[in-house]
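Before relying on records like the one below, remember that each one covers exactly one chain. Contacts with other chains, cofactors or solvent are not represented anywhere in the record.
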Amino acid sequence: MNAAELGVGALILLSGFLSMAAGIGVLRFPDVLTRLHAATKPQVLGLAVVLLTIVLRVPTWGVLSTVVLIMTFQLLTQPMTAHMLGRAAYRSDHVRRDLLIEDDLGRDIAEHEEEDGPAAR
């Protein structure tokens, strides 16, 4: 084995560790918001490392363009998905409010309801 193959193997192990950390976080964290954080951050980084490994192993323009498209779509959709799931969990009272440091969304919802009055409910 040469140095390039060892580097690729190390990157694959790093990606596996990041994906495992995401899975453990989803299982172990106490509420929806922290689980969303655990599911999105290491998962995106793990995918990025795998895609980098693929580009290093097969450095062609076709592979590079495909990897760029995959990563672009992942970076565009993953944060929006987590944001929408977090808002839905908040509005359906699946969030542990004792774990929130600052409740910006609750304050904004309360201000909006005060402006619209009881007709908006």
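The CA atoms of residues 7 and 53 lie 9 Å apart.
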